[in-house]
Amino acid sequence: MPTTPQRRALRTLLDSGELIVAPGVYDGISAHLTKRTGHVAAYLTGAGVAASGFGLPDIGLVTGSEMAERARVLADALGEVPLIADADTGYGAPINVVRTVRQYEAAGVAAIQLEDQAFPKRCGHLPDKQVVDADVFEQTLAAALDARSDAGLLVVARTDARASHGLDAAIERAHRYAAAGADVIFVEAPQGVDEIERIARDVEAPLLINLVQGGLTPIESARRLQELGYAIAIHPSDPLGRATFAMLEGLCALNGTDVADFLPTSPAEFFDLVGMAEWSALDTKLATT
């Protein structure tokens, strides 16, 4: 199958050695504005789609078909700008991953990101994450690589093992996923500049780093990340966070309330705005029933 201009563009950007800065997009206007302000790539943020599109926290509640349809909308709005698309855990067993990859590929994304969390997944900067065994995720990865009809579709392998198993285990998984054929490696939520530097030093593969406002990872400059050799820096929360602040400011001005009472300072507080506490209470109730 012939590849697409967007996939060729992303591969060319990767091969150039220049850091790719990809803002988080989650709806039509965020995609159009990313394109019109001259960004060379965009990142479909699952957290942003959950919150903005469905009013849900990022705890595995949005389905694969809902995400694939949003990917199609955003890829269309972005035009020639390549879209790196979050696909969580692939939404099931390897056979489900095959369907997910086919749907995302048909939607026009340039890269699909899969992670080794146990289902239901959680935002990478929330506590209490769990990961599957590395060999289980390697089955997911193998299914994704085999399902591509266009080898130009890049597969990003993300590990969340830093939170539960430590940095050594996360780097070991990064090596395994690169050896299994992933095009880009994503070690989620390094804690501290020293960990960002060590990942860059120890992992011999194109690297993606996730910079979340108020998250666990320090916000390093594009220049510093370029020096360290990172390939892609995604900023999933930046546009959505700014839009949320503007909406809160405007809504509070309408009824005279204090915007400071509502402003989130962490991912967990942001998700509380879309019902995290209520969903957590329901989860606890169901677990004890």
Give the arrangement of secondary structure elements.
Elements (H helix, E strand, L loop, with lengths): L4 H12 L3 E6 L2 H9 L5 E3 L1 H9 L9 H15 L4 E4 L7 H14 L3 E5 L18 H14 L6 E6 L1 H5 L1 H13 L4 E4 L5 H10 L4 E4 L11 H7 L3 E4 L2 H18 L11 H6 L3 H12 L2
Parallel strand pairs: 1-2, 1-8, 2-3, 3-4, 4-5, 5-6, 6-7, 7-8
Helix pairs in contact: 2-4, 4-5, 5-6
Keyphrases for this structure?
eight-stranded parallel β-barrel; 289 residues; TIM Barrel; globular; Carboxyvinyl-carboxyphosphonate phosphorylmutase; 8 strands; alpha/beta
Task: Please provide a written account of the structure.
The protein is of the alpha/beta class and 289 residues long. It has one domain: TIM Barrel (Alpha-Beta Barrel), CATH 3.20.20.60. Helix content is 50%, strand content 12%. The protein has helices spanning 5-16, 28-36, 46-54, 64-78, 94-107, 134-147, 161-165, 167-179, 193-202, 222-228, 238-255, 267-272, 276-287; strands at residues 20-25, 42-44, 83-86, 111-115, 154-159, 184-187, 207-210, 232-235. An eight-stranded parallel β-barrel has the order 1-2-3-4-5-6-7-8, surrounded by nine helices. Helix 5 (94-107) links the parallel strand 3 (83-86) and strand 4 (111-115). This is Carboxyvinyl-carboxyphosphonate phosphorylmutase.
Determine and state the CATH class.
Alpha Beta
If you consult CATH, what is the topology? Answer: TIM Barrel
Mean pLDDT metric: 96
The helix tally amounts to 13
Which segments are poorly predicted (pLDDT under 50) over 5 or more consecutive residues? none
